[in-house]
């Protein structure tokens, strides 16, 4: 049974979500291709299972007893159509469905005790799970089925679970802003555009946040379309955003910059931002819950400065949480991980907003990371941790400051 242990610890962090969906839709990361899948009996009484997928995903397997069965957990596969495989193989039955948030499960019931001789996720142009089962005795099978589950996979203790939302608080509303789009592809390299890469990552990050249960996520664009910069902040306002996170992957003509970088609005840009917003923006877009339609520019600027005075420290704490979580995940960051700038999408005065340079397309190393779904999945998990930590700290500080 030595082949089973490395399989149980194998978590292929290959996550790539490319299909659009509505605001809170959840979609499986991979789909089964039944026509290219199959179960074949081997000459020694074993079974060979092949499940063709649309893309690789994190997965694991184990055996269970009473009755003997093989269990495959994956993050996340739409198993529809896989049941047809059992029709052509008497003595085998399949069932599949959701198992836990973000994970699905396939159960293969066996006619007798079998051991896992070989198991792998084949990547490349034709991703697939391949498993070879060979006969074993009932005692050996029972011992393997009784093996304790992986510590990281066991359900968490109640004390470590995320706190439930309090009545009336609702989920944290996160607006993700994949940069560029449509007629503006952003940086480009070897057939990849910044706009397409950031849209893919935004969809992946949205999926991770929504599955966590503490967040509601809105995308400023969910297709390859052009969205003006000020419209992006208007979308955040309409969504009632608690956080605005703009995602970019620029290219620099000179220098060798690499690594993720978190940007917040520069202090010297704040006054100019208030003036520009007061001059150009619709008055109902400037501040949530404040009617400025009858106010002149000076009053509007003062009110926005007051709002920004409260928002600025919250934004700084958000940036610090993002940097800390990304570093904790051992993801490469720029040598100056937190920087400032006068980015238009960060100028909303009362919404904590940051711009995340996920990496630089001009860097060979960053380019490889950005194109790697495993790396993007790791970054998405880090951002989840950062947003959760910041939200809890922010709620605590605001409650303490309340009269």
Residue share in β-strands: 15-25%
CATH class of the largest domain: Alpha Beta
> Count of helical segments?
9
CATH H-level name of the largest domain... which superfamily?
A: Zn-dependent exopeptidases
Helix-strand sequence: HEEEEEEHEEEEHEEEHEHEEHHEEHH
Rg computed from alpha carbons, rounded to a whole number of angstroms: 25 Å
Work out the helicity level: 25-40%
> Structural class per helix/strand content?
alpha/beta
What is the β-strand count? 18
- Largest sheet descriptor: 6 strands, mixed
Q: What general form does the structure show?
A: elongated
Examine the secondary-structure arrangement and name the CATH architecture of the largest domain: 3-Layer(aba) Sandwich
Oligomer: single chain
How many domain units? 2
What's the rounded overall pLDDT mean? 75
Strand order of the largest sheet: 14-11-15-18-16-17
What does this structure look like?
The protein is an alpha/beta fold. The chain has 2 domains: 4-145, Sandwich (Immunoglobulin-like); 165-401, Zn-dependent exopeptidases (Aminopeptidase, 3-Layer(aba) Sandwich). It contains 9 helices and 18 strands. The chain has helices at residues 4-9, 84-87, 138-145, 194-212, 229-239, 267-280, 297-328, 364-370, 373-401, and strands at residues 30-31, 38-41, 47-52, 59-64, 69-74, 77-78, 93-100, 103-109, 114-122, 128-135, 172-178, 188-189, 192-193, 215-219, 243-248, 260-265, 333-341, 353-357. Strands 14-11-15-18-16-17 form a 6-stranded mixed sheet, sandwiched between helices. A hairpin with a 2-residue loop joins strand 12 (188-189) and strand 13. Helix 4 (194-212) packs across helix 9 and helix 6 packs across helix 7. The longest helix has 32 residues, at 297-328. The model is unreliable at 1-27, 155-168 and 269-307 (pLDDT under 50).
């Amino acid at each position: 049974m030595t082949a089973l242990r490395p399989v149980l610890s194998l978590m292929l962090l290959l996550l790539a979500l490319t299909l659009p969906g509505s605001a809170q839709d959840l979609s499986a990361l991979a789909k089964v291709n039944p026509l290219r899948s199959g179960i074949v009996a081997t000459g020694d009484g074993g079974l060979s299972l092949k499940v063709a997928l649309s893309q690789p995903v994190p997965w694991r397997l184990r055996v269970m007893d009473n009755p003997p069965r093989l269990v495959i957990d994956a993050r996340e596969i739409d198993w529809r159509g896989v049941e047809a495989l059992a029709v052509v193989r008497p003595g085998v039955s399949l069932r599949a469905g959701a198992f836990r948030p973000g994970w699905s499960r396939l159960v293969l019931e066996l006619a007798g005790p079998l051991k896992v001789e070989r198991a792998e996720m084949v990547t490349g142009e034709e991703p697939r799970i391949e498993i070879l089962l060979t006969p074993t005795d009932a005692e050996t099978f029972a011992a393997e089925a009784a093996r304790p589950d992986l510590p990281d996979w066991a359900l968490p203790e109640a004390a470590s679970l995320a706190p439930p939302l309090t009545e009336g608080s609702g989920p944290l509303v996160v607006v993700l802003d994949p940069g560029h789009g449509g007629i503006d592809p952003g940086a480009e390299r070897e057939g990849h555009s910044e706009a397409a890469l950031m849209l893919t990552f935004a969809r992946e990050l949205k999926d991770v946040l929504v599955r966590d249960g503490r967040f509601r996520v809105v995308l400023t664009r969910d297709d390859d379309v052009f969205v003006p910069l000020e419209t992006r902040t208007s979308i955040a306002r309409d969504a009632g955003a608690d956080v605005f996170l703009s995602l970019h992957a620029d290219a620099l003509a000179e220098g060798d910059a690499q690594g993720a970088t978190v940007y917040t609005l520069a202090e010297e840009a704040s006054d100019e931002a208030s003036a520009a917003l007061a001059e150009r923006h619709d008055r109902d877009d400037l501040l949530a819950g404040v009617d400025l339609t009858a106010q002149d520019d000076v009053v509007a600027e003062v009110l926005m400065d007051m709002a920004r005075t409260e928002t600025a420290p919250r934004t700084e704490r958000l940036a610090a949480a993002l940097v800390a979580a990304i570093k904790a995940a051992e993801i490469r960051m720029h040598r100056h991980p937190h920087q400032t700038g006068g980015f238009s999408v960060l100028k909303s005065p009362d919404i904590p907003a940051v711009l995340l340079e996920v990496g630089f397309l001009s860097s060979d190393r960053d380019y490889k990371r950005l194109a790697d779904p495993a790396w993007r999945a790791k970054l998405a998990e880090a951002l989840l941790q950062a947003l959760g930590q910041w939200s809890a700290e922010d709620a605590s500080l605001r409650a303490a400051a309340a009269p």
